[in-house]
Design a protein that fits this description.
2 helices; 107 residues; two-stranded antiparallel sheet; mainly beta; 9 strands
């Protein structure tokens, strides 16, 4: 269990996917460029088997904005998107309601 102060350290933000492409050398990865309002981030997400890269462009998602960048074989991932599910039942992106804008903090 974590307390409220620890939870508040997680910076969840609305982001708009402005580009997405399959990582050809990876079975599960899609490289996403996300607009967080005041900056853009590259995020590698393991959702290739559940989403077509081109269908993601224009979608709003929720990302962990203050996650330390992670160097991967294919580049640096600068955040993490929120999704629910598993390999058996599917993976579903967590998306905000209409009206939420890139950069807004999720509370």
């Amino acid at each position: 269990m974590i307390d409220f102060d620890e939870f508040m350290k997680v910076d969840l933000r609305i982001a708009k996917i402005i580009d997405a492409e399959n990582v050809e050398e990876a079975d599960k990865l899609i490289k996403i460029t996300a607009d967080l309002g005041n900056d853009k981030r590259t995020i590698f997400a393991g959702i290739k088997g559940f989403y077509e890269a081109e269908d993601l462009i224009g979608r709003n998602i929720i990302v962990v904005a203050n996650l330390e960048p992670r160097k991967m074989r294919f580049g640096v991932s600068e955040g993490m998107l929120l999704a629910a599910g598993d390999d058996q039942n599917g993976v579903f992106l967590v998306a905000p309601d209409a009206g939420a804008l890139p950069g807004m903090r999720v509370r």
